[in-house]
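Usage example:
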Amino acid sequence: MTLERDQVVHVAMLARLGLGEADVERYREQLDAILSHVDRLQQVDTSQVAETAQVGGLVNAWREDERRECLPVEAALANAPHRRRDHFEVGAIQE
Amino acid sequence: MSSDTVAGLGARLRRGETDPAELAGRARGALESIADLHPVLRYTDDLAERQARRAARMLAESPATAGPLCGIPFAYKDVLCVEGVETSAGSKILQGFIPPYTGTALGRLLDAGAVPVAVTNCDEFAMGSSNENSAYGPVGNPWDGSRVPGGSSGGSAAVVAAGAVPFSLGTDTGGSIRQPASFCGVAGFKPTYGRVSRYGLIAFASSLDQIGPFARSVDDVASVFTAIAGHDPRDSTSSPTAVEPVGEQLGKGVAGLRLGIPREYMAEGLEPGVLSAVQAAFALLEKLGATLEEVSLPSTEAALSTYYIIAPAECSANLARMDGVRFGLHIDRPSLTDTYLETRGQGFGPEVKRRIMLGTYALSSGYYDAYYRQAQKVRTLIAEEFDRAFEKVDALVCPTSPIVAFPKGAKSDPLSMYLCDVLTLPVNLAGLPGISVPCGLSEGLPVGLQVIGPRLQDARVLRVARAYEQATAWHTQTAPPRAGAGRLA
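Running the assembly step on the lines above writes:
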């Protein structure tokens, strides 16, 4: 398979990664080489195999839904680039 | 007992020959003397001072109950959160981030009286096999400063190998503890997935990540493991199974144990010096009374591809939180989309971008079944093959890395870097415990022997590694002295 330039641009946009023009071609070549290698996965017969999402052996981890201490507002906001009163400030999502 | 191990320093503390503050100061001096290797990103002086006082109190009030780590200086990888101490994950996007809380593993070390003195350099978001992906510059290997220390926990391996601290913490998602331990000639242990809480660890790939120690002896590794292991309700993937006391197994030796050598791991690409060192290790284990036999893990060849779908997929989701809104770098643009694009475009380095894009691609509509779902199925096969091998043998022994430490800049092509992890990442995919211990030198550079055990059999892995270590002198070998470089002891 060959990864197209448009696909790289599309994936970078999905991932919200701003790439320079020169970067796009470099990443296209590198990702294409990696995907060509990874493609050997398709040769493994997995028709009778279940998926594994995690290997810890746990099915569900439950706990009581109890109130407990949480971070104070000031601590939670201490790293915020922009805050307004007790909130994180973020640009408008829709104008 | 060596004077610069956890055990040796603990004995000196208890005899009153030194105190925690003095040890922390000496460790800091030793770390400063190897600054040219760049293994340290920042010192934790205030925390070290507080902890040294706390440790001194614990030793004075109750020397009998103070554990083996009380008063012992250590360093930790720049992905572990401690309240009030900058953690940047080796990335510009988190430069200046001050965690508002302390993670469980670090918190347990603090409660045990251990004294953190420095935060160590690493590949950005723990993605890499050479430490060259750090946004703050590469790390030199203490054995040869022009070579890499391995990665991603390169700084944590280097500070122990240089004799500046007796132990450190790292993390291992595809080999990031074991491979640098191998490259730097120290012991490095990745416990069973879920055995050590990941709470307070900046996530890379959540189904693979595990925290573990570096040290210069298996006994020291066991002491640190014992302090940090165990269930944590704050990490829903942490195992509720009680931790088997390591001490009871540690000294039992390998006589009567069946050890398997995975045929596929010995197949190709092993440097001759690595091959001869591990073959000598196998012979020694046999002499010590173990039975060695060949086993097969047929899906090994597919493991690398599986890993490089699953780990990037998980990282693309985990790193979505680096959006410049709640913490970290923020580059203002008129629209929110452009703010995200610029913040993440400038904040992440090339390897992190590659993996985010690879993962986003594998999870995107139309490719999910062919890549992500297929990788999850092959992951099942890989785990089952290990299970079948462990029906026949008690543990597996093999090289940690097919190669020794390579020169900086030697692997500029991403795929050739990925191939470095071929013998370590299957262990993460199956969630198993694995350790690397020094087993020789090849052209003057350390070679590592990897021991792999069944899930939750961490103690057995340490037992095999210790039996080997105690019968050899490789772990007492230190990097050649360098001009101006001091050691802790």
